[in-house]
Write a structure and sequence with these properties.
The protein has 14 helices and twelve strands. Strand 6, helix 13 and strand 7 (about 270-275) form a beta-alpha-beta unit. The radius of gyration is 33 Å and the shape is elongated. The strands form three sheets. A five-stranded parallel sheet has the order 5-4-3-6-7. It has a five-stranded mixed β-barrel with strand order 8-9-10-12-11. It folds into four domains: about 5-60, no CATH class; about 70-130, no CATH class; about 140-275, Rossmann fold (3-Layer(aba) Sandwich), CATH 3.40.50; about 290-350, OB fold (Dihydrolipoamide Acetyltransferase, E2P) (Beta Barrel), CATH 2.40.50. The chain has helices at about 5-25, 35-55, 60-70, 75-100, 105-125, 130-135, 150-155, 160-165, 170-175, 185-195, 200-220, 240-250, 260-265, 275-280, and strands at about 140, 145-150, 155-160, 180-185, 225-230, 255, 270-275, 290-300, 305-310, 315, 325-340, 340-350. Helix 4 runs antiparallel to helix 5 (about 105-125) and helix 10 (about 185-195) packs across helix 11. About 55% of the residues lie in helices and about 20% in strands. About 20% of the residues are buried. By secondary structure, it is α/β, with parallel strands linked by helices.
Length: about 350
């Protein structure tokens, strides 16, 4: 039996009793119709209780829960602290205000509670970032005994399905470059499970790899991973849900999806792109530098050879086709940054 049905039954009983009392009271002016008034208003009260009870009980509670679920931990904490400070201020002023002549002495203490409580919540939520930064000096300890600040333990990062399947997030998180909590909404986990159950072999393998990456993240003691049932009503696409959720929680999204990256940036959401991180940490070389590369294949142009650095950067070698499968020294001639990454052009040092 659901909560709605239980409250509807209770509401029917309460409104029926109220209706009976109202009908009985109205029949005072027409005693001959007492039974008709009483029965009629009892039925009307039962109907109103059946219809109106959810709007007075369960639905406001669900709406409040949904609102609280959309707020970040920093916002809730700041609101609670602001409310406490406002109520303490109102309590300190209640006694001197109560000494004022009537009716001010009776009204102002109550108004002070409302006003100071409201202003406390409003001011602390407005300056919640500054409050969190101040509390950042207060440190706690991780399980391994290393110190961690308030900002690090309370920072939330949303994970996209693509970055879980990619797998590199596990290695990055273990290095400590992702401080805070990695939050995985239930709808992302459902999409990952849908991919893992796909009839297509490649998609199924990618989905299962994502499941293994999640298990690896949860086992790591240096990484905080949380799976939440938080959701966004009225939206079906996972990417749209992530963007809306990130805006509501004021937290970044970790992804390597180019389309999600562009859409989120247009809406003012911070994006942590693993592909951009990988490009940023590649070795920096300048024209004229000498380096060693293994030419493994021919290039698209005539007489070109192609090799790769240890970090995956492509090196295009002029006249390198005659050095196939050889480790040679080359001189860098040009470095080109493209959307796909960094390309290095070079020529054999012997020439």
């Amino acid at each position: 039996m659901g909560a709605d049905l239980i409250f509807r039954i209770i509401g029917m009983a309460v409104f029926s009793i109220v209706g009976a009392y109202v009908g009985n009271g109205l029949s005072y002016y027409n005693p001959a119709q007492q039974l008709l008034y009483t029965v009629g208003f009892t039925i009307l009260g039962a109907f109103m209780g059946l219809v109106l009870t959810p709007y007075l009980t369960t639905r406001p509670i669900r709406g409040l829960r949904a609102l609280l679920a959309q707020l970040s931990a920093e916002t809730l904490f700041s609101a609670l602290v602001g409310l406490v400070v406002g109520l303490l201020t109102a309590a300190l002023l209640a006694f001197p205000l109560s000494l004022l002549p009537s009716p001010l002495g009776k009204v102002l203490p109550f108004l002070g509670v409302l006003l100071f409580g409201y202003f406390g919540v409003a001011i602390f939520i407005t300056r919640q970032t500054d409050i969190v930064n101040i509390l950042g000096g207060i440190t706690s300890r991780r399980e391994d005994g290393s110190p961690t600040s308030w900002g690090q333990t309370n920072r939330t990062i949303l994970l996209d399905t693509s970055v879980i399947i990619d797998g590199r997030v596990a290695d990055i998180a273990k290095t400590g470059f992702l401080p805070g909590t990695l939050l995985i909404p239930r709808f992302v986990l459902n999409e990952l499970q849908y991919i893992a159950d796909s009839p297509d072999g490649l998609r199924r393998a990618r989905g299962r790899r994502g499941m293994e990456v999640l298990a690896e993240l949860q086992k790591a003691t240096s990484v905080l991973v949380r799976i939440s049932d938080i959701d966004v009503d009225g939206v079906r696409e996972v990417d749209d849900k992530l963007v809306i959720l990130a805006r509501q929680m004021k937290c970044p999204i970790l992804t390597n999806d180019y389309n999600l990256n562009r859409i989120a940036e247009l809406q003012g959401v911070i994006i942590l792109n693993i592909n951009e991180l990988a490009n940023a940490i590649k070795s920096v070389v300048l024209p004229g530098e000498l380096m060693e590369v293994n030419v493994i294949q021919e290039g698209k142009e005539v007489n070109q050879g192609v090799g790769y650095m240890e970090d995956g950067t492509m090196v295009v070698v002029e006249n390198g086709n005659k050095y196939l499968n050889q480790q040679i020294h080359v001189t860098v001639t040009k470095v080109l940054q493209t959307a796909a990454g960094r390309m290095i052009f070079a020529r054999p040092d012997k020439e």
